[in-house]
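Handout, page 2. Input:
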Amino acid sequence: MNILLIEDDFMIAQSIQRLLALEGMQVDWVNNGIEGLQILASKPIELVLLDIGLPSMSGFEVLHKIRQKSQVAVIVISARDQVQDRLNILQQGGDDYLVKPFDFDELVARIHAVLRRTQLQKMPMDTLNYKDLALDLTQHQAYWQGELLEFSKKEWILLESFLTTPVKIFSKTELEDKLYQYEQDINSNTVEVYIHKIRQKLDKDFIKTIRGFGYRLG
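Output:
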């Protein structure tokens, strides 16, 4: 995940950059809006963390210029806690507003939440959604918490079946039948193997085992 941090406070920027790196995020940091806009125009960025009190060009101006050319997700981080400041940011196209000082875990949670929302807004109508998973049936792509995730053909078959009828309990035989057209010789534990792989990629409770009946979404 590529994030652009526009923040003029060295200590704050260094902390954010270091901690987000531990979360597996690549952070480009600049201390002014002009350089931030240049980076945004030159490389793929998934989310911008934008301070308001910047030198030369305020965060309000930077956001206005971003929205003239891009719909990239933007979270404003600022010490300003006035309601009007928040309203102005949201009205200008900001996706979220976080007041300094903030808890780092909250920042990470807000980043993931904003990316989920923006990703889902880009989804075509032919999409299946359940909790944090979205299956784009047109492009044959899966998104978990807003991020692209790879599934094998058989994993996809099972997931599409579950998301098409999310309240249904599927027996093991039903799921085997869905896989037979792709694999003639299915082992007795084939369904368990692929459900285990799906749980490893998503969440162990995403698909629940209903003893004596089969499986359903959690």
